[in-house]
Write a structure and sequence with these properties.
elongated, two-stranded antiparallel ribbon, OB fold (Dihydrolipoamide Acetyltransferase, E2P), alpha+beta, 2 domains, 9 strands, disulfide bond, 8 helices, Frizzled cysteine-rich domain, Frizzled_dom_sf, single chain, secreted, 5-stranded antiparallel sheet, 298 residues, TIMP-like_OB-fold
Amino acid sequence: MWFILSLCVLLCLSECYSYDYKEGFLQDIDPDWASISGRINQPKCIDIPSNLTLCQNIGYTQMRLPNLLDHDTIEEVRQQSKSWTSLLGVHCHPDTKLFLCSLFTPVCLDRKIYPCRSLCNAVKAGCEQTMLFYNYSWPDMVRCDKFPEDADLCIKPLHNVSTVHNLCSACRHPETVEGLVDGFCRSTYVVRAKIKQINHDNEKKILVLQKKKKFFKKDGLRKKDKRSLSPFIQGGLHCDCDRINVTLNENYIIMGNKTGPGEFTAMYIAKWRKDREFRKAIKLMRDRVSNDHGAKYR
């Protein structure tokens, strides 16, 4: 599990400190000092509730409260964490959950263990552009210079994103509801089609589509564009896309943008599915089209 390595290190280090529980409270803060500083609630261990969606299946079941964002109640934690849940589905960085849960639901040790500054910087680098696309800036409450350097006791990154396989960018976006809807919002066209063949030209991987297509979004596309649509993957000659298999005669959902007269990039490609999560994403797309155009999509 993604958190086990960090958790094992923290548990080993925690043995250097003595636990002193009194009525469920962690004794890392003096009660008198707590009252002087305005901190009424002493730190305590509580079970992570099942309705705290952001931090499920993280390798431990109890969290420290108040947490590292100074949320005093579990209801406050749950409400404040809601706005981050969708970011996990976009998979903007593999350590997003590690970073966020280290703050919202910190592991229940007898001292605070913060995420390292390098972990914050890595997640910010991977996710900030996605957040800015939806007009959300990186919040001050998780400003990276607030967190300790790696030389201190802190939670370090577990993944190096530079070591991912040589997959084309269009073929490595997450096939989650959030990933599909994010692709939809970033694209000017979204189409369901079968891929007849793949050609290569000037470093591009060109997808030759079969004649029958169904458009879910077609901003700025003329009839001629829709008929001749052959999306290309920029740099596709030097990357792989294991999602595509033209011999199986399957439907794909393809999203992208117009880059010039008769030229259309493919920025998201996935097999068309019939499972519940995929149907939910398609419904959200159709609802968005209906809202944008003031009429039910047909």
